[in-house]
Amino acid sequence: MDPIEIFKALSNESRLQILHWLKEPEKHFKPHEGIDMRKTGVCVSQVTEKLHMTQSTASQYLSILQRAGLIKTERIGKFTYYTRDEEKIREIGDFLNNEI
Description:
By secondary structure, the protein is an alpha+beta fold.
């Protein structure tokens, strides 16, 4: 775990919002092509629509979160779906409790 990369990823309000939405995706996103959002995640077009940003910006934010290890991806057909990495998020909480 690289705490600096994680905290850089969390230093943007929109990226924090994405993580919040991904915690309970069914509350925040419309279903996409019959995908179980809780299990598989949400695609970039859903995030783009919710953020009211360009797809390129939303993709960049998701990429930053992924590189920090905060989200996981799954490719299905032509779409990539994003979910929170709950284990990594727990590790961050443990790090904060034990190291700071």
